[in-house]
Amino acid sequence: MNILNTLFFVAVVGILADATLGASWSYGDISAWATNYATCATQQQSPIDIVHDDAIVDTTLGDFTHALFDAPPQTMTIKNPGYTVQIDLTGGYTIDDPSLLPGVFKAAQFHLHWGNSSSAGSEHLFNGNQYWGELHIVHYNTKYPDLGTAANESDGLAVLGFFITKDYPQDNTAVQRMIQPLTEDRVNYNSESESYTTTFSMETFLPNNISVYYRYQGSLTTPPCYESVMWTVFSEPIRISTAQANIFETRIFSADRGTSNPDLVNNNYRPAQPLNGRTVFRSTQCSGTGSFSMPTFHFVALCATVIGLIIVR
Ligand SMILES: *[C@@H]1O[C@H](CO)[C@@H](O)[C@H](O)[C@H]1NC(C)=O
Ligand SMILES: *[C@@H]1O[C@H](CO)[C@@H](O)[C@H](O)[C@H]1NC(C)=O
Ligand SMILES: *[C@@H]1O[C@H](CO)[C@@H](O)[C@H](O)[C@H]1NC(C)=O
Ligand SMILES: [Zn+2]
């Protein structure tokens, strides 16, 4: 059983706290999203396939540093809204650097998309490849009062996306702390939630190298698909163990606790959408061109070639 047969009749839709009462959508019938949510069929939708060779270097893009993510939020609440695992933040860090984001953006929540034991589930593709999963940190522009208001404004949201692989030889300790309420079966069913007694910073999750990233203008990847998101997708993935991936793949349900044969939440991703003439930009650092399709020495070589050309000239 999986999510594909489940309709979400939910008040909590996508990343919004309070939108679209009474409407429904499911990952089993993505082509029908536009029936109730017309924006899902418009021209700047997400996710997309990010193709390194087609991305334009934007020299005005700065470096994200780990220090930006150091401050732990005031409170963190993990919840199961029936289609993902989401951690809501109060007092999240802000990013206030015009070389990174056009405005002051505050972290409000993060959530994940994933596959199953045999099939990948990231939303963005990278050079045509799909990763096992993807983490999204959702920020809103503080010129708006809250996430719900910002979500329908063209400059309202900034989402940082990190691919996830399940090839780490040991448990990722930050992810283990995050999923403890799941490993102990307390928030595994629809509408369950729990606050962490101790909060922890986003910095603990991040991959080592966050200076290589891609940037484009797009949308929410769930209904109502508002085109309000400045996307930043990082090249280096977060790595978790297969045992940790297995928790996501087999122990999270879209139904209420007590339901017999509850559907699993997995394969909770939207397929890549057409670019429709949009430009994908990239940061100036030399880039990894796909950690699982190409070994490390290839992109080291790519950087060396570029440096070589500069020296020759
Ligand atoms: C994983 O998902 C794929 C794609 O939907 C499906 O074909 C496959 O049967 C699933 N595997 C398991 C073990 O559920
Ligand atoms: C805001 O919502 C309206 C109605 O759904 C939609 O037409 C408009 O495109 C949305 N704005 C953005 C930025 O997506
Ligand atoms: C990140 O990786 C790129 C490409 O390998 C490299 O050029 C850059 O110096 C690295 N940055 C950091 C902070 O490690
Ligand atoms: Zn998402």
TrEMBL record:
Membrane spanning stretches: 292-312
UniProt keyword Membrane, yes or no: yes
Keyword Signal among UniProt keywords: yes
InterPro entries: CA_dom, CA_dom_sf, Carbonic_anhydrase_a-class
Signal peptide: 1-22
Keywords assigned: Membrane, Signal, Transmembrane, Transmembrane helix
Domain Alpha-carbonic anhydrase: 23-284
Pfam families listed in its UniProt record: Carb_anhydrase
Family: Belongs to the alpha-carbonic anhydrase family.
Name of the protein in its database record: Alpha-carbonic anhydrase domain-containing protein
Lineage: Eukaryota, Metazoa, Chordata, Tunicata, Ascidiacea
